[in-house]
Write a structure and sequence with these properties.
The chain has 330 residues and is an alpha/beta fold. It has two domains: 188 residues, 3-Layer(aba) Sandwich (Rossmann fold); 108 residues, UDP-galactose 4-epimerase, domain 1 (Alpha-Beta Complex), CATH 3.90.25.10. It contains twelve helices and eleven strands. The strands form three sheets. Strands 3-2-1-4-5-6-10 form a seven-stranded parallel sheet, sandwiched between helices. Helix 6 crosses helix 8. The longest helix is centred in the middle third of the chain and has 17 residues. Belongs to the NAD(P)-dependent epimerase/dehydratase family. This is Epimerase.
């Protein structure tokens, strides 16, 4: 008899890849969600679906009872109280894993290490908030719920991804850069192109969640990110290779960007201070990451097949052209 897994979420980005990974590793899978998004596994007889609201305890219990899971992967716990409910409802499973975030770290250190780098504080108001500003504190408080549950005998663990990219990414953060490289031969990069914001390929995040659910130490958190870090400019070079094209990377400092009323932070995935996660703890469980070149080839292929263009992150090509005009006169 196959092991059973319950995925809370399971139809969009990370959750979709978690289901694929679990199926590839012999699990029978149940997904639990509200049904607000198309179910890519509707025709797969190894994937069952329970409809419900994860904030409703009775719905969570029904999903547990129907799936009878060995492991649970929780993709949509955004508030500490949701984690509290989950570790209680799933207290008897072999492994419950909560998706936290690299944003849970409260200190800017290089690299950020589990159990060493301090986590964000979380006020009562932040714990109930839905804003982007409270995201890190809420994730950190969810981690603390995991730690306490493990002390009470629950096989609960946490995985902290950095910026996740790959096929079916509805955030479209990387799609902006994929579209730029695929469309133009000159691409503006803010600053000198050497800034680093650690990224994690989504299939690797999915395998990390399964491995931690199976083999992680209760009460522990595990960082996940590409084992080869690339700068923003190196990322564009990797994208260009994946697109089989050539681009000119044009550096623009604050003064040049200001000519078009732009700032470096108007460009998605730019970060003034490096964000780097130590992934050795996860690797000690046998996890490996996909080579960045291969990950980007898969990502570009799906991007071209999709209708995503990252337009919501676009600072405006007209503005960029003004910056290029300034740079060309220097």
């Amino acid at each position: 008899m196959s092991d059973s897994a319950l995925v809370v979420g399971g139809t969009r980005f990370i959750g979709r890849h978690v289901v694929d990974d679990l199926l590839e590793n012999g699990y029978e899978v149940t997904i639990f969600n509200r049904g607000n998004h198309e179910n890519p596994f509707a025709e797969n007889d190894r994937v069952s679906r329970v409809e419900g609201d994860r904030t409703n305890r009775e719905d969570l219990e029904r999903a547990r009872d129907e799936a009878e899971p060995n492991i649970v992967v929780d993709c949509v716990a955004y508030k500490p109280k949701e984690v509290e409910e989950a570790v209680d409802v799933f207290a008897d499973v072999d492994g419950y894993v909560y998706i936290s975030s690299g944003s849970a770290y409260g200190n800017e250190e290089i690299p950020k290490r589990e159990g060493v780098t301090e986590l964000c504080d979380c006020t009562a108001e932040q714990a109930e908030d839905d804003s982007a500003e409270s995201y890190g504190p809420r994730k950190a408080e969810g981690d603390r719920v995991i730690f306490e549950a493990a002390e009470n005998g629950v096989n609960a663990t946490s995985v902290r991804p950095c910026i996740v990219y790959g096929p079916h990414d509805y955030t479209e953060r990387l799609d902006y850069w994929l579209e730029r490289v695929d469309t133009y031969d000159r691409v503006i990069v803010p600053g000198d192109g050497t800034n680093i914001w650690h990224r994690a390929y989504v299939e690797d995040v999915a395998s990390a969640l399964r491995i931690v659910a199976e083999s992680g130490e209760p009460g522990e958190a595990y960082n996940v990110g590409d084992q080869r870090l690339v700068t923003l400019e190196e990322m564009l070079e990797v994208i260009a290779d994946a697109a089989d094209t050539e681009i000119e990377v044009v550096h623009a400092g604050e003064r040049e960007l200001a000519a078009a009323d732009l700032e470096p932070t108007d460009f998605i995935l730019y970060r003034p201070y490096p964000h780097v996660l130590d992934t050795n703890k996860l690797a000690s469980l046998g996890w490996e990451s996909t080579p960045v070149d291969e990950a980007m080839r898969r990502t570009m292929k799906e991007h071209r097949e999709s209708d995503r263009d990252g337009a919501e992150h676009d600072p405006g090509r007209d503005a960029e052209e003004r910056v290029l005009g300034v740079l060309d006169t220097i």
